[in-house]
Amino acid sequence: MVIVGGGTSGAVLAARLSEDPARSVLLLEAGPDDAAYPEVVRVPEREYDAILSAAVGVQWGVPVGAASSPTLFYRGEVLGGTSAVNFMATVRGQPDDYDGWAAAGCDGWGWDDVLPAMRRAETDRDFGHQALHGDTGPITVQRWPEETWAACHRALYDGAVELGVRPVDDINDPMQVPGVGVFPGSVQASGERLSVSQAYLDAEVRARANLTVRCEAPVARVLLEDGRAVGVELRSGEVIEAGEVILCAGAIESPKLLLLSGIGPAGDLRALNIDPVLDLPGVGANLQDHVGLGCIYHRPEAETLVGSPAKTVLVGDTGRGRGVDFHVLACPISSSEAGGTLFQVFVFHLLPRSRGRLTLTSADPAAIPTLDLPLLDGDDLDDLATVVELVGRWEQTAAFAAIGASRLSPAGDLVAGSASRDGMRALLDSSTYTYFHQVGTCAMGPDDDPDAVLDPHLRVRGVDGLRVADASAMPTIVRGNTYLGCVMLAERLADLMA
Ligand SMILES: Cc1cc2nc3c(=O)[nH]c(=O)nc-3n(C[C@H](O)[C@H](O)[C@H](O)COP(=O)(O)OP(=O)(O)OC[C@H]3O[C@@H](n4cnc5c(N)ncnc54)[C@H](O)[C@@H]3O)c2cc1C
To answer: Can you tell me whether residue 218 is helix, strand or coil?
Structure first.
């Protein structure tokens, strides 16, 4: 079988499926091998440098909602995928998220089904002994110790407590949140980043006779014959035959590969001179993301950053009766900013109602597709306003005053600005950010859902021998960071295929 994409989900799946010596697995990755990670990727404190230099990834601007300037989007293109460039926050989402998938017809994906897969993935150095966590998995997880916090992490944590938010030990324990706590990070004992390929595809796994990892091999399309996937074609023109193809190319590239292969909304495909093989309207639809406001602050004191920029987080509930529905986090931008320190405070809405769409702009496999993200309007905007108002109140706390920071952007009073939709739109105009959590573009769903691209075994409906297993398979976004969900999807699929 061929797995396309050696990223967060693909690396897990290649490792798990090749545990069975009877299976022959070829993992095709578009980017270079993980041995080639540059320093900006290996060292967590260089996170922003990694993103802004697009060291091992693809960076592009996407118009989001009414914001006048495009929002920066990014994805890793290297073995390990986006886990090699992300903020390493190892967060699960809420049990209701997964129970919601199961209730919507995705049998086998409820919390009780997915929790064992999450536990199997991790070695939690802080809470591994507890029933909720794992202590034998490939991904080593630990919460950032207080001595590594920057001033903005401390100010967010203490300021939230001042505002009455409960401090919690473990933000992955659903019984403890909402509250303010510390991000669990995926790091090696040396303090360097631990990407998913480093965790799962170690030397011993890569030495398996039935596993081949081939990097710098971008796939152009899936080859189909008589309703069945029979292989893939690389962008170089090389054809590789396979009995089964599993796409793990991520929420942008997996739907793109289906569309380029003639699977998707037939009218859109014809408009690009791609022969429709299967009319599946859900391919590229149902795009979801955590989008919100990012404020930039300056403080006169210079600081040396240690570890990931994302350390403390307020996991909140706007009180709409849905439980946890936002994150507020503070991130130092630079480790040694001349003339002081810049940091950002982000407010992200975790339960957006808005849905966007991914469409191709051309039949060229190298072209970046268009993302239409009509987020941040209506009720989503009102929810976000509640949290922006909270950040405005945080700016009035003693903890905030103690670090001597002033906001550079957006301009204006956050409490007053968040009081109206026009005020919120003005704040968001140049300060809209994504949490980089795109999901849902090849969603799984029940048989009677015409928009479901995948069945609950992640098989593409109407085609034999073809699955999608990555962020695009999530029917609804989870209320946490998405990387561990992608690991879980692959672990779970390995169970289902066993
Ligand atoms: C800057 C940033 C910070 C983030 N921070 C966090 C965080 O702290 N915590 C968190 O939980 N989530 C975070 N996320 C999101 C999270 O990392 C992603 O949701 C998750 O890693 C996606 O996993 P995936 O398997 O769907 O895709 P990916 O990990 O992106 O894997 C896709 C792989 O497929 C390869 N590929 C693509 N196209 C082709 C092709 N045509 N042929 C062959 N290979 C191909 C890619 O090179 C890549 O290796 C962040 C994302 C970004 C961009």
So the answer is: coil
Spacing, Cα 423 to ligand 1 middle (Å)? 34
pTM above 0.90? Answer: yes
- The 10s digit of each residue's pLDDT in 232-255 is 999 999 999 999 999 999 999 999
pLDDT in tens, 337-396: 568 999 999 999 999 999 999 999 999 999 999 999 877 778 999 999 999 999 999 999
Contact, 102 vs 472, CB < 8 A? no
Ligand 1 binding pocket includes 74 (Cβ within 6 Å): yes
Sign (positive/negative) of CA torsion 119, 190, 202, 7? positive
Say yes or no: CB of residue 140 within 6 Å of ligand 1: no
Contact, 197 vs 34, CB < 8 A? yes
403, 319 in Cβ contact below 8 A?
Answer: no
Range of the domain at 179: 2-497
Mutation probe of ligand 1 site: the residue of 86, 288, 368 with most atoms within 8 A of C-beta? 86
**pLDDT on residue 378:** 87
* 349: annotated active-site residue: no
- Say which CATH number the domain at 341 has: 3.50.50.60
What domain count does the chain have? 1
